[in-house]
Amino acid sequence: MKKQFLILSLMTILVSTASATPQQVCVFDLLGKSGESYKLIEEWALASKQWGTSVQLRGYQDEAKVDQDVKSGKCDAFYMTSMRARTYNKFAGSIDALGGVPSNDIAMKAISYVLDKRNSKRLVSQNGKEKFEVAGIGQIGPAYIFVRDRSMNQLEHIKDKKFAVLHYDHAQTSMVKRIEAIPVKSDISNFIRKFNQGEVDIVAAPAYAFKPLEMSKGLGSKGAMINFPVVNVTADLIIRPEKFPPQFAAQSREWFIKQLPRSFAMVKRMEAEIPSKYILNLSRDEQLNYQKILRDGRMDLTRQGIYDPMMMTVLKRARCTVERTNFECSIGGE
């Protein structure tokens, strides 16, 4: 009897210890623990205690290292850019499709829709033998084209210019080739440095990167930011569902939806901090040229299996809800 009691006590201790073990959450922020993305996940971690967890955050400034640690099983959950997270969930990862979200208003609608409970099944995916679930999407902001010489104000002027692309995102390389520029493979940790040092002529980046990474060095006296968003940058929080309570992902997604107004206010504040002397507005005709070439490229990438076709339909619906007179709203495709 005494022996059975000891065994039962030991099992109780082991179960309690296992349940008390904090889930490891790997968080990428280019600016480290001082960045807005990391701060957002810190607040999420605090809120998640109400959902039956005690997570431990691990900060990274190297996104490739997060990906490595996910693959080696060191992360029970992870937060990284949607472009990189696309391999874990193509539906959510396609929200960053090139030209798919050309304004903050459209981005708000798109993210809210994706995180809605109607899409809960699409947010669960199988990657080999492993299951993953999207538990949140955070807004980083629209990425604009920065050029070292403002004479590159038309698509034909970009031909044969060096354009930094993230090496793991086939979509960027494909689109840069489409406009006949030269893709220069880079990583998220060095693409701005290449621009600042003159190794590339062009880079696409959100306002989030402008001040902390001193992009004014690359712009100098001749450079400009083309005031036309080519991609909306978001980050996905993805969990291994078996490591969390059953309703955790749904509760987490609801929390992220509630944070969206604040996140978008932050993006607008950062965009307003970019000096007006750098901002280059395109003519209406040139904006239309950008829209058409991005649309053609996006549809081609969807046919190749890079983007999720359902997400492309969602994004078009969001665009045409906000901008009903847009040329694409009266034609088929996507």
From TrEMBL:
- Keywords, alphabetical: Signal
Q: Which domain of life is it from?
A: Bacteria
Read off the InterPro entries from this record: AdeT1/2, TRAP_DctP_sf
User: Where are the membrane-spanning stretches?
Assistant: none
Q: Would you indicate the residue range of the signal peptide?
A: 1-20
Q: What is this protein called?
A: DUF6091 family protein
Q: Which organism is it from?
A: Acinetobacter lwoffii
